[in-house]
Write a structure and sequence with these properties.
Number of helices of chain B: 17
Strand order of the largest sheet of chain A: 2-5-8-1-9
Distance between the termini of chain A: 54 Å
Oligomer: heterodimer
Helix content of chain B: 40-55%
Strand order of the largest sheet of chain B: 6-5-9-10-11
Order of helices and strands of chain A: HEHEHEHEHEHEEEHEHHHHHH
Structural class of chain A: alpha/beta
Strand content of chain B: 5-15%
Structural class of chain B: alpha/beta
Distance between the termini of chain B: 61 Å
Number of strands of chain B: 11
Radius of gyration of chain A: 23 Å
Strand content of chain A: 15-25%
Number of helices of chain A: 13
Helix content of chain A: 40-55%
């Protein structure tokens, strides 16, 4: 009964916990809800899972104005109005103006797909509840045409949240949940290795040392994340930085790691006092 | 022991539902845990917990339930077997779970689970340790744990108990003190968005939609504008015993300002206790009469007091705690009661540990204001409190105190 598990890809590294959560989610046919600090690869998980499974990815980027029905289908009233004025298209047929959204497309496709509902917390509080029924039954109807869309192949649903809003309990109960922890040193070495395969060990070691020292610093408003570390390492390599200089003297390209002025000032102050050395 | 785990979780306030417990059983029946305690830990966590704030409590419950399992595996198996064999134990469950369990194919579930466990037992007796060291765990390839906890130092495996014991998620608990963004997120819940007033905003989407549905004949749709209808009055204690919390309170303040969205936010300062004046600045140079404040603002304002409420009893019962303020008037407690009486939707945030809240002055103040700790859970509770009007008995008590001179 055990299915082939998701173990990450060449470009994406998963922890045991996450890979197990993906397995459980696929097996129990429940959406997988992913939370974690920004820059820990929540969105990339869906992209790489789709790649690993060989499924097409349907990505639904949620915004504050997004409504649940947008993911299912959209009735393009403006185009219909336009067509009716200029006598184009088949205005009499409402179905011509119904476009399926990402979830709708995944339901209707004959192949199995991965649906990514990205940043679900951006939308209105009721948004997740409005989707519950459709995700549970894997079907919905379009009242305009009376058509029923039912999933041929149950899609794998990945949902990400940045914790801006609380999600409703009824929704949470139906999800498999995983919180992506900030990667520890060993995992981080592998992650950086994936992006910079030919990185010298000495540079990697001192960059990580400086990076974690920075993250441990008390009072940072936005601690640097994985994606910032990767950018920073690119910058360091580009400039041919001597790894030995990285520890002690000061941090070059601080702007790639820290995005808040107060943070940069704070670090500069600490560096002057030698507290980072 | 297995079922104890479930109740242990509930005792640790992890809101695991029976629905999810059954899902866990289903996952285990299908072998998703890969016959290891590590796997069980991972599967149980992702199915039973739906908020990282509960990870720590989950870890504690897990460690309590399964400590010693490595040494005495047979006991778990017995427990599991017993639990599955003895339906009388189901009587301890709430009726909903019992009904669900009965409706499931329990026999099938039991059979499969036992088969799997028997297999596990054999392997165990065969000399391999259940917990995956030396690469027997199917997850060895995944490598070491991010935080580097290993069993036996050989790498490649780790024990779920070691992970649980490490309590790496303690920082995500909701009952610990929090940062600005979290405070802002908590305060945002105070918003009540309302479309109020006259229909003076053109609803473009609805207009386009109705027009198009109307096959091109223009159909105008109007609606009232949507605004946050909440006004907040923030009154903060500064200086003296509040100094250790200065940073925390400044975070609260910046979060309240930054989260914005409030229709109006006013903040005032006081020292120790509120008397005849509050101040617009923390340096106490711009006094505002407390009576003036109560006259200007109507009872729809939400009043949030911030302070440790820790003072000399005299200060609460004195007419003025300020040496330089010679004016006589009601005592501090009466002033507080008057504020609470004027603004019935009120709360007091106390950055001190709730453990010391039985100090005499704090007890007195708690008779007037409901008090909440400056933690995420505390703020959540406070927001709940502010959203509903106080009970009649509380209002009557405060009113009586406010009348006292």
């Amino acid at each position: 009964m055990q299915q082939a598990s998701f173990r990450g890809t060449n470009e994406y590294i998963v922890s045991d916990e996450l890979s197990r959560a993906v397995d459980v989610s696929i097996h129990l046919q429940r959406p997988l809800l992913i939370k974690g600090e920004p820059g820990t690869g929540k969105t990339l998980l869906a992209v790489n899972l789709a790649k690993a499974l060989g499924f097409t990815l349907e990505r639904w980027q949620v915004k504050s104005t997004t409504k649940a029905v947008d993911g299912l289908y959209r009735y393009d009233t403006v185009r219909r109005l336009h067509d009716s004025r200029f006598g184009e298209g088949n205005v009499r047929d409402v179905a011509e103006y119904i476009e399926l959204g990402p979830v709708g497309r995944a339901f209707e496709a004959t192949d199995r797909r991965v649906v990514l509902i990205d940043e679900i917390d951006k939308a209105d509080l009721e948004f997740p509840n409005d989707l519950l029924h459709e995700l549970d039954t894997m079907s919905f109807s379009i009242p305009e045409t009376g058509r029923m869309v039912t999933a041929e192949q149950r899609p794998v649903v990945i949902i990400t949240s940045n914790n801006e809003k609380e999600l409703p309990d009824a929704f949470l109960r139906r999800c498999v949940f995983h919180f992506i922890e900030f990667p520890g040193r060993e995992l981080m070495e592998r992650i950086v290795g994936v992006h910079h395969p030919d990185l010298e060990d000495s540079l990697l070691a001192s960059a990580l040392e400086a990076f974690y020292r920075l993250r441990r610093l008390d009072g940072l408003r936005k601690p640097p994340s994985t994606s910032e570390l990767i950018d920073w390492v690119s910058a360091l390599r580009h400039s041919g930085m001597d790894p030995a200089k990285l520890l002690g003297a000061g941090l070059p390209f601080l702007g790639t790691l820290l995005k808040k002025e107060q943070d940069i000032e704070l670090v500069a102050r600490k560096l002057r006092r030698g507290a980072m050395g | 022991m297995f079922l104890d785990f479930f109740f242990n979780l509930r005792a640790h306030r992890v809101p695991a539902t029976t629905h999810n417990w059954l899902a866990l059983l289903r996952a285990m029946r299908d072998g998703l845990h890969g016959d290891s305690l590590d796997g069980f830990y991972q599967v149980a966590r992702c199915v039973l917990v739906s908020d990282e704030a509960h990870y720590d409590a989950f870890d504690q419950a897990f460690a309590e339930s399964f400590r010693g399992v490595e040494q005495d595996l047979s006991k778990v198996l017995e427990g599991l077997d017993d639990w599955l064999r003895d339906p009388k134990q189901l009587a301890h469950l709430d009726p909903a779970l019992a009904a669900l369990l009965e409706s499931m194919d329990t026999e099938e579930l039991r059979k499969q689970l036992l088969e799997r466990l028997a297999e596990q037992k054999k392997r165990h007796e065969g000399g391999n340790r259940w917990i995956g060291t030396g690469g027997t765990s199917p997850f060895g390839q995944g490598g070491q744990h991010p935080s580097g906890i290993r069993v036996g130092g050989s790498g490649g495996g780790r024990s779920a108990l070691a992970v649980a014991d490490a309590r790496r998620f303690a920082a995500y608990r909701k009952d610990l003190v929090l940062d600005t963004r979290q405070i802002a997120a908590a305060l945002r819940k105070l918003r009540t968005m309302a479309r109020k007033g006259v229909d003076d905003e053109l609803d473009i989407d609805a207009t386009v939609d109705s027009t198009a549905r109307n096959c091109g004949d223009l159909e105008i749709e109007m609606r009232p504008p949507r605004k946050n209808d909440v006004r907040v009055l923030l009154v903060m204690d500064v200086g003296g015993s509040m100094d250790p919390f200065a940073r925390l309170v400044s975070r609260l303040f910046s979060a309240a300002t930054a989260s914005g969205g409030f229709r109006e936010l006013r903040s005032y300062y006081f020292h120790n206790c509120v008397y005849g004046h509050v101040y617009e600045d923390a340096a106490f140079t711009k006094p505002v009469k407390t009576t003036e404040l109560m006259r200007q603002l109507d009872p729809s304002w939400r009043l949030v007091m911030v302070g440790d409420a820790y003072m000399h009893p005299g200060e609460l019962m004195m007419a003025s705690g300020n040496w330089y303020d010679g004016s006589r008037g009601p005592v501090g407690l009466t002033w507080l009661a008057r504020l609470a009486d004027r603004f019935p939707r009120n709360a007091w945030i106390n950055p001190e540990e709730p453990g010391i809240w039985d100090a005499p002055t704090i007890t007195e103040i708690r008779r007037v204001f409901s008090m909440f700790p400056l933690t995420l859970a505390g703020l959540d509770a406070m927001v709940q409190q502010l959203r509903r009007p106080p009970g009649a008995s509380q209002r009557a008590r405060v009113h009586a105190l406010a009348r006292a001179s």
